[in-house]
Design brief:
There is one protein chain. It contains ten helices and seven strands. By secondary structure, the protein is α/β, with parallel strands linked by helices. It has a seven-stranded mixed sheet, with helices on both faces. β4, α3 and β5 form a beta-alpha-beta unit. The mean pLDDT is 92.
Length: 248
């Protein structure tokens, strides 16, 4: 795992955690131009960057490593904790553990809905899909539209093609069977949940998280699929993020 920082460390900090089969740069680098008054931290997960191309072996160890970074490098506290997709699931787990402090938490399309028997076919669909993208082969449109939103090219453009089957399997085993920790109810700082209207799994996840986080607010972006608002509208995304971070 690797951490890249931008800006003045004396400014308010935002730690970003990217999604599965993507990268910190593909997800968040377009936001940097609009966040120059913050100390921005990109978390590069194992198996998701050329810097450390080894597989992501353990999601628990991954979350432990992020937690250790916040505890050791940030004195246990970040101002903003922002995760997209799998990164948002990781953010849920971090605040649920209760070992670090985050003043504001943005969960963009978190996956916290237990998929049960659908976990295995979803995992293999993910593996096949990323393999086809790597080999520049088209994906079945009906399946892409159903899972990721109609005509959603963003999810393809954000894929890290070097992702391994092992990394995908290890990550999916965690996120597709994830259950929020009971201690999540103790987290009382502001939480925002963002999702597109065309995201069925995050929609279910939002309803689950509301049982733990009564203070959580939600914004739904009409006509948007998975990752579309983040990828296609980075300026608007950053501006909305800043409003959430600075609202008293």
């Amino acid at each position: 795992m690797n951490f890249i920082t931008f800006g003045n460390k004396n400014n308010k900090s935002i730690l970003f955690i990217h999604g599965l089969a993507s990268t910190a740069d593909l997800c968040f680098r377009p936001l940097l131009a609009y966040l120059q008054n913050y100390y921005v931290i990109f978390c590069q997960l194992d198996g998701h960057c050329s810097y450390k191309p080894n597989d992501l072996v353990s999601m628990k160890q991954t979350i432990d490593n992020i937690e250790e970074y916040i505890l050791n490098e940030m004195s246990g506290s970040v101002y903003g904790l922002c995760g997209f997709s799998m990164g948002a699931t990781i953010a849920v787990e971090l605040i649920g553990r209760g070992n670090i402090s985050a003043s504001r938490v943005l969960l963009d399309a978190a996956i916290t809905a237990e998929l049960g028997l659908m976990a295995t076919p979803f995992t293999y669909a993910f593996i096949i899909g990323t393999s086809r993208i790597k080999n520049k082969k088209p994906l079945p449109k009906f399946l892409l539209d159903k899972l990721m939103g109609k005509d959603n090219l963003s999810v393809i453009e954000m894929v890290y093609p070097q992702i391994s089957k092992k990394t995908i399997k290890n990550a999916c085993k965690f996120i597709y069977h994830y259950k929020p920790p009971k201690n999540l109810t103790k987290f009382s700082n502001p939480v925002m949940f963002w999702r597109g209207s065309e995201e069925p799994i995050p929609e279910k996840s939002e309803k689950i998280l509301r049982k733990y986080l009564s203070q959580m607010k939600t914004e739904v972006f009409e006509g948007m699929g998975h990752g579309q608002f983040l990828h296609e509208h980075p300026k608007e995304y950053a501006e909305k993020l800043k409003i959430f971070l600075e609202n008293k």
